[in-house]
Amino acid sequence: MTTSPRALPAPVQSVLDTVHARNPHEPEFLQAVHEVLESIAPVLETHPRFVEDGILERLVEPERQIVFRVPWVDDTGRLQVNRGFRVQFSSVLGPYKGGLRFHSSVNLSIIKFLGFEQVFKNALTGQGIGGAKGGSDFDPHGRSDAEVMRFCQSFMNELYRHLGEHTDVPAGDIGVGAREIGYLFGQYRKITNRHESGMFTGKGVQWGGAEVRTEATGYGAVFFVQEMLGVQGDSLDGKRVAVSGSGNVAVYAIAKAWQMGATPVTASDSSGYVVDDAGIDLEVLRQVKEVERGRIHDYAARRPSARFVEGARPWEVPVDVAIPSATQNELDQADALALVGNGVRAVAEGANMPTTPDAVHALQQAGVLFGPGKAANAGGVATSALEMSQNASRQRWSFGDSEAKLRAIMGGVHDAAFTSAERYGRPGDYVVGANCAGFERVAHAMQAQGVI
Ligand code: GLU
Q1: Residue 431 lies in a domain
Q2: Contact 203 CB / ligand 1 (< 6 Å)
Q3: The domain that contains 158 carries what CATH number?
Q4: Active site positions, annotated
Q5: 439: domain range?
């Protein structure tokens, strides 16, 4: 990871030193902490009490971290053991809230970076949700439905005691979609003997889930791009868009980009990317990735206008807008320079921390509009909060109403980040704006609630 060349105020540097000493083997967590602490100096100047009250020292230490064994039996009768995590970072604004990620790369550093980001992202939505993240190094790919079910049941056999609609409310993330959420929710219901709808979000719409939750992260990222372009008197209409990934976020970013008059031309997975000059055919993409659970080259095999580029990322394709929607650190400085060289106007993070610090710097230096994930992908968790509201009041809102609410929330998130950047003397810098606005809300609440 890279560190900032800028000198930090002494109290911030001292907190960073402690975080490094305490978490030496957690590069992703350290990267996420750096990014926030480097941005919030102007807030600390305005509110020196935040420093005196030890807000920073407390914020960088999760309220609770749970690491547990997940034993299960595979289809051949062999015992498998995975590691489960839930990092409950902050409950100052509401119950712990954040997704579960099942992927072979998952470790404590990844879960802590995601949980830390979630605190500020959730604050920025303006809703009453705290921050958390969890998951496992279990990889559902190539596993049968029965194996996924047994894994999910074993995972919940431990985690259930730490969850609840007023305590901690998980949702999906990479590797955790409708199937996994169904098995996890079912096991919670079985163990607790409670049909507690609001203890999980992203549920099927037939059994307590909210309309638009599935689409929300991808839709929200595109709404955010539209907001950023709107400030410049521009819009997505007629733009070429590069999207990475082919999971839930990517699919619905592609869908909404089409609806806004743009042409999404790429999608990817860990094997490479496809570029389709006629625009990505959503039906074919979903058939390949969601129904067949296949690889992205199968898309190119079915579309004469598309080609598969093995082992590369889509950032070399000339586009006006890029929406990285795969995973952390998937867009580095060389990628950013390639995008800039091709005249990119806006980049918005559909995934969490997909852009490396060097790449963010390169994009901002070149005057590219950059929407950080805490703002640009906040639509997913914001719609989770709408799901919690519906569950609590036993209501069901229509797709149209829910999408209108999401759009309004993304407008609010954009405005909060935009005005905060202006207020703190960094107009147009959505990284500073999002971090300062999220941090301010969390810090005020921590101050009000005392040293706990
Ligand atoms: N995993 C999503 C995120 O990164 C959603 C979390 C949620 O809905 O709780 O924000």
Answers
A1: yes
A2: no
A3: 3.40.50.10860
A4: 133
A5: 1-61+427-452
pLDDT value at residue 5: 52
Residue to mutate (ligand 1; options 90, 217, 248, 390; most atoms within 8 A of CB)? 217
Q: Can you tell me which atom of ligand 1 is nearest the CA of 378? A: 10
Contacts of 359 by beta carbon, 8 Å cutoff, 6+ apart: 331, 332, 333, 335, 336
CB-CB neighbours of 302 under 10 Å: 12
Residue 218 beta carbon below 6 angstroms from any ligand 1 atom: no
By alpha-carbon position, which residue is closest to atom 10 of ligand 1? 381
The domain tally of the chain equals: 3
Predicted TM-score (pTM) of the model is 0.96
Q: Clarify whether residues 299 and 359 are in a common domain.
A: yes
Is 352 near ligand 1, meaning CB less than 6 Å away?
yes
**Splitting the chain (452 residues) into consecutive groups of 10 residues, what average pLDDT does each group show?**
64 96 98 97 95 96 98 98 98 98 98 98 98 98 96 98 98 97 98 98 98 98 98 98 97 98 97 97 96 94 97 98 98 98 98 98 98 98 98 97 98 98 97 98 97 92
Structure tokens at 52: 């005196």
Rounded (to 5) percent helix, strand, coil in the chain: 50, 15, 35
The answer to whether residues 200 and 156 touch, using CB atoms and an 8 Å cutoff, is no
Ligand 1 centroid distance, CA of 393 (Å): 22
Q: Are residues 271 and 183 in the same domain?
A: no
Q: What are phi and psi of 22, to 5 degrees?
A: -85, -25
Q: State how far the Cα of 359 lies from the Cα of 365, in Å rounded to an integer.
A: 10
| pLDDT given for residue 85 in this prediction | 99
Atom 8 of ligand 1: nearest residue by CA position: 381
Distance 17 CA to ligand 1 centre (A): 29
Quote the CA–CA distance of 210 and 202 in Å, as a whole number: 7
State whether the beta carbon of 201 lies less than 6 angstroms from ligand 1: yes
Q: How far is the centre of ligand 1, averaged over its atoms, from the C-alpha of 300 (Å)?
A: 30
- Helix axes of 248-259 and 213-231: crossing angle, nearest 10 degrees: 50
Residue 383 alpha carbon to ligand 1 centre in Å? 9
